Amino acid sequence: MKLFLDTADIGEIRRAADAGLIDGITTNPSLISKVAGSRDPKEIYLEICEIVDGPISLEVVAIERTQMVEEGRKLAGIHENVVVKVPLTEDGLKACRELINSGIPVNVTLCFSVSQALLAAKAGATYISPFVGRIDDISGEGMQLIHQIRQIYDGYGYATEILAASLRHPLHVVESMMLGADCCTIPPKVLWQLAKHPLTDSGLEAFLADWDTLEVEL
Ligand code: G3P
């Protein structure tokens, strides 16, 4: 299972990359807008690509097919690891097919239904990004979507990878893995939450207190 960090925050990306814990990065226009300030987003994208050696999803902001393809090609020109992210619209699906046919990997984003995921697979998408948390937000069952897409992709032999997105807490990650998602993308906060356990903290505290009674050094 691939673990991606869902952020454009360079500090957080360095922290996770230094720990050797992440396989790639996903970004979106909202995430880049939080960190860019007066910087050109393309500079930040390149910096991310130089830190993490893995798939880096960068999203187009055009909504018309030809412009999406043009933007996608520019983004792909930033670095060989770029995956172009397009929204799951009619134009997005057409742009996906065109980019895939020219050898550029594509992550189809903003997926909220199995029927959308089917069309992304038909368009040859490298990744499909179902937004689990946003479905939960409107009283739906986000995880059910992961399960259904897994069944359909396996049943019909689609190679598109399921990239569980909009994951908000550790249980989302665990459930995505149990249901067979190929990748999970998570905010930095959730990455570090995955490591935490109160019994680890109290256990370590007790070990160190016991060691201290020896009054020796290693
Ligand atoms: O990768 C998509 C993801 O960032 C969306 O997450 O929490 O904004 O729904 P969220």
Description:
This protein is an alpha/beta fold and 218 residues long. The protein has a single domain (2-212), classed as Aldolase class I (TIM Barrel). It has eleven helices and eight strands. The protein has helices spanning 10-18, 29-35, 41-51, 65-76, 90-101, 114-122, 132-137, 142-156, 170-178, 188-195, 198-212, and strands spanning 2-6, 24-26, 56-59, 82-87, 106-111, 127-130, 161-164, 183-186. It has an eight-stranded parallel barrel, surrounded by seven helices. Helix 5 links the parallel strand 4 and strand 5. The relative contact order is 0.12. The structure holds SN-glycerol-3-phosphate. Residues 6, 26, 28, 129, 131, 133-134, 165-166, 168, 185 line the site of SN-glycerol-3-phosphate. The site of SN-glycerol-3-phosphate (G3P) has 11 residues, from helix 7.
Task: Present the secondary structure layout.
Elements: E1 2-6, H1 10-18, E2 24-26, H2 29-35, H3 41-51, E3 56-59, H4 65-76, E4 82-87, H5 90-101, E5 106-111, H6 114-122, E6 127-130, H7 132-137, H8 142-156, E7 161-164, H9 170-178, E8 183-186, H10 188-195, H11 198-212
Parallel strand pairs: 1-2, 1-8, 2-3, 3-4, 4-5, 5-6, 6-7, 7-8
Helix pairs in contact: 1-3, 4-5, 6-8
SS strand fraction: 15-25%
- The unreliable regions are none
CATH topology tier name? TIM Barrel
Mean of residue pLDDT? Answer: 97
Structural class, by secondary structure, is: alpha/beta
The rough form would be described as globular
Helix share bin: 40-55%
What's the CATH class, please?
Answer: Alpha Beta
**Biggest sheet descriptor:** 8 strands, parallel, barrel
Distance between the termini: 38 Å
Q: Number of DSSP helices?
A: 11
